[in-house]
Amino acid sequence: MATKMKQEAQGKQTQIIEAAIKRFSHFGIHKTTLSEIAEDLSMFKQALSYYYPDKQSIVGATEDKILDDYKKELSKVLAEASSVKSALLGLLKIKRSFFEKYFMLTSEKDGIELFANKGAVDWRRTLKEEEIKLLSPVLEKGVKSGELKPLDSVYTSQLLLDTLYAFRKCMEDKPIPNASSFHKVFGKQLEITELFYNGLKTPT
């Protein structure tokens, strides 16, 4: 009985987070209310509050869900890559996909972000740390296979990710972008990644 109740609660929490992500992604966090999320689920606000007592708790759970999904997809892409170059291209595609989908949650424009102030910094730091953990072994493998020249895999991963983030940050300082804007940023990230890789690969 207790197990069934726990499963039902977890299922309801999942529904709430999915509804919240949908609202946040479309309207932004600050313009979304708990009442609207509850209404989307045909729930009373009081019932929603049983699972998440306030908006901040939903935002925190939203952060965890998106970060977990991102890590799973990135891990899969990097694990299946046949070379460092294909791994880097896979990284870019995953970053683009998530950035387009969750721009309204991750942008700092007009205060639209997963957490305010310190929380947002922590979220970004956690994301980068996870990316470095996943990318640095790929670079190490590339060195061992002879695809890449000897390098510091952790530092090199951090340097590349910082550079990619710099292009994305330029978009966050502008109005809500359209498909053309995303394509332009992705194009620049692709160019810098290819330059990066060409500088790291072993001469043939």
Describe the fold and architecture.
The protein is built from nine helices and no strands. The chain starts with a helix and ends with a helix. Mean pLDDT is 84; it is low at 108-118. The longest helix has 28 residues, at 118-145. It is mainly α. The chain has helices spanning 2-27, 34-40, 45-51, 55-80, 84-101, 103-106, 118-145, 153-172, 179-200.
Task: Reconstruct the topology from this structure.
Layout: H1 2-27, H2 34-40, H3 45-51, H4 55-80, H5 84-101, H6 103-106, H7 118-145, H8 153-172, H9 179-200
Helix pairs in contact: 1-2, 1-4, 2-3, 4-5, 4-7, 5-9, 7-8, 8-9
Briefly summarize what is shown.
The chain is an all-alpha fold and 204 residues long.
Give the CA-CA distance, first to last residue.
Answer: 65 Å
Unreliable stretches: 108-118
What form results from the Cα inertia axes? elongated
The number of helical segments is 9
Instruction: Give the helix proportion (percent range).
Output: over 70%
**β-sheet strand percentage:** under 5%
Tell me the series of helices and strands, N- to C-terminal.
HHHHHHHHH
Structural class, judged by helices and strands?
mainly alpha
Radius of gyration: 20 Å
Give the biggest beta sheet. Answer: none
Number of strands: 0
Average pLDDT, rounded to a whole number, is 84
User: For this entry, what is the oligomeric state of its chains?
Assistant: single chain
